[in-house]
Amino acid sequence: MRNKEDKILNFINKIKKNKKAFFTAAAFVLGVSLFVGFVYYRLQIIKDTASTKLSLAVNYVASGNMDQGLGVIDEIISKYSNTPAAYRAMLMKSNYFISQNKYDEAEQLLKTVINNAKPDTVKPLGYPGLILVYDNTNKIDKAIEVSNEFLTKYKTNYLAASVTENMARLYELSGNEQEAQN
Fold first, then answer.
1. Which residues neighbour 157 within 8 Å (Cβ) at sequence distance 6 or greater?
2. Spacing of C-alpha 48 from chain mean position
3. What angle do CA 68, 70, 73 make, to 5 degrees?
């Protein structure tokens, strides 16, 4: 027990001799900790705000206020670009573009989702839309290529069955009956 007390007293004496260095180091550690905590808190606030705004956009669209909903979606995409809500907003906007036959705009958004979405669980959600874009623009070979890419990356995803079924239809459209049966 005496040995521990000696070590503690020795440590305290070292601090007394080097007060300036000790308090400088302690203040630095405290400052860095506060800065990291502040940045983390701000990032969480940004994510929460983006999610709340996405919920608002969904409510606008569901109640028939498409213009207001799209306005909020555009705000989310521009102001909160690297949040999960922004990528979900891109999916929503791409669905709107597809319904309006604006396939080039939808393709751009869907490729952004597929390549950059955070978290990674959002990325697979962009593939069916991109396949649909290529299907609707008669780019059947690209649709098949994207389908294969999806099935290679996300074999166990819940969308795999419908992508596989759709791919068989795409093979039939391309005239490749043999692949359609596989």
1. 124, 150
2. 14
3. 115
Q: Report d(CA 135, CA 67) in Å as an integer.
A: 27
pLDDT on residue 131: 95
> Are 69 and 89 within 8 A, CB to CB?
no
C-alpha closest to that of 119 among 74, 89, 87, 151:
87
Structure-token pair, residue 124: 């697979």
pLDDT at 174: 80
* Residue 165: how many other CB atoms lie within 10 Å: 9
Q: Is 89:54 a contact under the CB 8 Å cutoff?
A: yes
Q: How far apart are CA 70 and CA 28, in angstroms?
A: 46
Spatial separation of the C-alpha atoms in residues 106 and 112, rounded to whole Å:
10
Q: Are 131 and 163 in contact (CB under 8 A)?
A: yes
- CB–CB of 76/53 below 8 Å? yes
Sequence-separated (6 or more) residues with CB below 8 Å from residue 82: 118
Say yes or no to pLDDT of 129 above 90.
yes
**DSSP states of 110-144 as a string?**
HHHHHHH-SSGGGGGGHHHHHHHHHHHTT-HHHHH
Task: Name the pLDDT band for 181 (thresholds 50, 70, 90).
Answer: low
